[in-house]
Amino acid sequence: MRLTSEFWVAALVRRINNSGAFAALSHKGAAEAGAIFIKFRNTDGTYDLFGPAPQMVYDETKPNERLFTPLKASVAEADINDDLDKQKRWDRDLWIVEIEDYRGDRTDLFPVAEG
Q1: What superkingdom does the record give (predicted)?
Q2: Is residue 41's pLDDT more than 60?
Q3: Which of 13, 34, 53, 92 could form a disulfide with 5 if both were Cys (CB 3.0 to 4.6 A apart)?
């Protein structure tokens, strides 16, 4: 059984904040199953955007795990915000989590799909 978006986001924000990085919810979506997007601030001031990975990348042994795929990398914040605003017009149920980690290493913060 897959965790609800609300529960998963709350756990992510808590875990990241407890790790010494910073995470905040900037848009609250549908509690049960809203899509989750991650806006990640890089150490150089640029941003990366991650969204839900396509179903075809999920492993049969972990079909309920949430995976993310890179959508944009090392761009200005305004570019990310424009994309997220367009996405919100199409899907008001989405969640947006903003993360800052000045270690510059997001590998242990949230799962990104391989390949």
Answers
A1: Bacteria
A2: yes
A3: 34
